[in-house]
C-alpha cells in the first residue's frame, strides 16, 4: 500500500535539486529546495498539533503556490488533505468540519504566515483507508458535498496515465490557471510536479489580458483549461496572444462548444484537446488524435481511453464505466452517499451515458440525473441544447426541468443570442428538429449562462434566473 508520505518523497527525489519548480505569475520562481524548506516548516506546525499517519488536515484559505506547499506538508506527515476552496462561505466550511471531522486546520495566519490549530471535535475522527492522500469533494444529491477517499497510489496512477497519454515532459511548464486542488488540477498540475518535477507556474487571477500574457510564455508549456477560459480567449484579436512556447491546450470539466474550439484554433493555431474524467477515478478519455479537433465535431465525442484505462458501457442506458489503478477507494461512509456514481470491484460507474463511434471514441450522450420526465417520457436536456445551439444566432444554451402541475416536469431553455432573434423564430426551428414533447415550454433570454470556475453549469443560479424571468409559457 502506497503511503501519502511517498508523494512527498517522490517530489523530494524528482524536484528537490531543481532550480525552479513552483512559481506565481509576476513573482520569483521557487526552487525545489526552497519548496521543501517551506513544506518542512508547515510540517513542523502539524507535528506540534499531533498530526500523523491517517489523520485528516483541512487546508483553509490557502491558494496558489502556498496551497501546493501545504499539500506537500500534509503528505510529509503521512496524512490526508481536505481543501476548503476560497469561494466557500463560512457556513460551508463549518459544514465540512462537521461532516468530515478533520484532526487539524492549516491556514494563513497574521501576515500570511501559515498556522495550524487543532480542529474543534464536532464528530469522532474518521478512519480513513490506509494510504489516503486527499479527500476530494463532489456534489451530493442534497447539495452537501460528498467526500471521496483517494489514495496516494490512485494519484500516482492518474498522473502517470496523464503524462503518458498527453506526452508531457519533465521540462514542460504547466500553466496553472485551474485550481491545483480540484481533481483536474491534481492530475494535470500537481502530479506532474511530484512525479517528474515538471515546473508549475500559477496564475491566480485569469483576466483576459493577464491570461493572454501567460499563454505567450516563451518556453514549452501546457495549458489545462476549462471551457469558460477558452470562451474568454476565442474572441480576442490574433495579436492579443502569441503562443511562442505553448504546445498543448486541454479542456475538461464541462463540454466545450464546437464553435469555441474552432474559433480558438482559427485565431491562435492550436487545437483544444478534450479530456474527460471524474473525481472518483481521474482521467478517463483524451483526444490524442493527430489534428486534435474532436471537440469541434459537436457530437459529444471526448476521445479514446487514456493509457491503462478500460472503458465500457453498462446497463440498458449505456452508463460510462471506467477501470484503472486510479479508481479511488470510494465515498466516505456516513457522508451523504446518494448520487449517480457507483464503485464496484475496481470499476467506477459514472452518471454519464455514452456510446462508441466508428473510430472507437467515447461519445457522451447524456447524464442519468439530468433526464427530465415530461408526462412520463424521458427527455435528455443535451439533445435539446444541441438543437438550440444549431439555431443561427444562438450563442449559448442550457436546458433544465422544472416542476409542472400538468406534466410532472416541463423543459425551460435559457439561451444567449447574438442579434435579433425572437421566441417565435427559435421555436419555429425547434419544431422542425424535435418531437413535440421535447420542446421547451419557456424560453428565457439571458446575457450569459451561469457557470462555475470549472466551466460547469451552475444549475442553482440558472434555476433562479429562470424563476425570476417573466418569459411567457409557449403554447403547443
Taking all residues together, what is the mean pLDDT? 89
Q: Please work out how many helical segments DSSP would assign.
A: 12
- Tell me the strand percentage band: 25-35%
Determine the structural class based on helices, strands and strand pairing. Answer: alpha/beta
- The value of Rg in angstroms is 23 Å
Quaternary structure annotation:
single chain
Strand count, sense and closure of the main sheet?
Answer: 8 strands, mixed
Query: Which regions have little confidence, pLDDT < 50, spanning 5+ residues?
Result: 335-339
For the biggest β-sheet, the strand order reads: 1-9-8-10-11-12-13-14
Shape: globular
Distance between the termini: 61 Å
In helices, the fraction of residues equals 25-40%
The number of strands is: 25
Question: How are the SSEs ordered, and which strands pair?
Answer:
Elements: H1 5-15, E1 22-24, H2 32-48, E2 56-60, H3 64-76, E3 80-84, H4 90-100, E4 104-108, E5 114-118, E6 132-139, E7 145-151, H5 152-166, E8 173-176, H6 183-196, E9 200-202, H7 208-214, E10 221-225, H8 227-233, E11 246-251, H9 258-268, E12 272-278, E13 282-286, E14 304-305, E15 310-314, E16 319-323, E17 330-331, E18 342-344, E19 347-356, E20 362-367, E21 372-374, E22 377-379, H10 381-389, E23 394-404, E24 408-417, H11 423-433, E25 442-445, H12 459-468
Parallel strand pairs: 1-9, 2-3, 2-4, 8-9, 8-10, 10-11, 11-12, 24-25
Antiparallel strand pairs: 4-5, 6-7, 7-17, 12-13, 13-14, 15-16, 16-19, 18-19, 19-20, 21-22, 23-24
Amino acid at each position: 500500500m502506497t503511503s501519502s508520505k511517498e508523494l512527498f518523497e517522490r517530489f523530494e527525489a524528482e524536484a528537490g535539486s531543481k532550480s525552479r519548480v513552483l512559481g506565481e505569475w509576476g513573482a520569483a520562481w521557487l526552487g525545489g529546495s526552497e519548496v521543501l524548506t517551506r513544506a518542512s516548516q508547515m510540517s513542523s506546525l502539524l507535528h506540534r498539533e499531533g498530526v500523523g499517519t491517517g489523520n485528516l488536515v483541512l487546508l483553509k484559505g490557502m491558494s496558489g503556490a502556498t496551497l501546493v506547499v501545504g499539500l506537500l506538508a500534509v503528505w510529509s506527515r503521512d496524512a490526508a488533505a481536505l481543501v476548503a476552496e476560497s469561494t466557500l462561505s463560512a457556513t460551508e466550511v463549518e459544514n465540512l468540519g462537521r461532516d468530515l471531522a478533520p484532526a487539524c486546520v492549516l491556514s494563513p495566519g497574521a501576515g500570511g504566515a501559515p498556522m495550524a490549530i487543532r480542529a474543534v471535535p464536532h464528530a469522532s475522527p474518521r478512519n480513513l483507508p490506509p494510504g489516503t492522500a486527499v479527500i476530494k469533494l463532489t456534489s451530493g444529491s442534497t447539495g452537501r458535498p460528498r467526500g471521496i477517499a483517494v489514495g496516494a497510489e490512485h494519484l500516482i496512477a492518474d498522473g502517470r496515465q496523464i503524462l503518458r497519454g498527453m506526452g508531457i515532459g519533465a521540462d514542460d511548464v504547466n500553466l496553472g490557471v485551474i485550481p491545483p486542488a480540484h481533481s483536474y488540477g491534481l492530475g494535470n498540475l500537481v502530479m506532474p510536479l511530484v512525479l517528474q518535477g515538471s515546473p508549475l507556474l500559477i496564475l491566480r487571477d485569469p483576466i483576459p489580458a493577464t491570461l493572454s500574457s501567460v499563454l505567450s510564455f516563451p518556453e514549452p508549456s501546457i495549458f489545462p483549461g476549462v471551457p469558460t477560459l477558452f470562451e474568454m480567449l476565442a474572441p480576442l484579436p490574433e495579436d492579443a496572444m502569441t503562443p511562442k512556447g505553448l504546445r498543448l491546450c486541454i479542456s475538461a470539466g464541462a463540454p466545450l462548444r464546437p464553435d469555441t474550439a474552432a474559433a480558438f484554433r482559427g485565431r491562435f493555431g492550436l487545437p483544444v484537446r478534450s479530456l474527460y474524467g471524474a473525481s472518483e477515478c481521474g482521467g478517463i478519455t483524451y483526444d490524442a488524435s493527430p489534428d486534435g479537433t474532436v471537440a469541434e465535431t459537436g457530437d459529444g465525442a471526448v476521445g479514446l481511453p487514456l493509457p491503462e484505462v478500460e472503458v465500457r458501457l453498462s446497463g440498458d442506458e449505456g452508463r460510462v464505466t471506467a477501470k484503472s489503478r486510479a479508481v479511488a477507494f470510494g465515498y466516505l461512509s456516513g457522508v451523504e452517499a446518494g448520487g449517480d456514481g457507483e464503485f464496484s470491484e475496481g470499476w467506477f460507474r459514472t452518471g454519464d451515458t455514452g456510446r462508441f463511434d466508428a473510430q472507437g471514441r467515447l461519445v457522451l450522450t447524456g447524464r442519468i440525473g439530468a433526464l427530465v420526465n415530461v408526462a412520463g417520457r424521458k427527455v435528455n436536456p443535451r439533445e435539446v441544447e444541441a438543437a438550440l445551439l444549431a439555431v443561427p444566432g444562438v450563442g449559448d444554451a442550457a436546458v433544465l426541468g422544472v416542476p409542472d402541475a400538468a406534466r410532472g416536469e416541463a423543459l425551460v431553455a435559457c439561451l444567449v443570442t447574438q442579434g435579433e432573434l425572437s421566441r417565435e423564430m427559435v421555436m419555429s426551428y425547434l419544431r422542425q428538429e424535435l418531437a413535440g414533447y421535447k420542446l421547451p415550454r419557456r424560453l428565457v433570454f439571458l446575457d450569459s449562462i451561469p457557470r462555475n470556475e470549472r466551466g460547469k453549469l451552475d444549475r442553482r443560479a440558472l434555476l433562479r434566473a429562470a424563476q425570476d424571468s417573466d418569459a411567457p409559457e409557449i403554447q403547443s
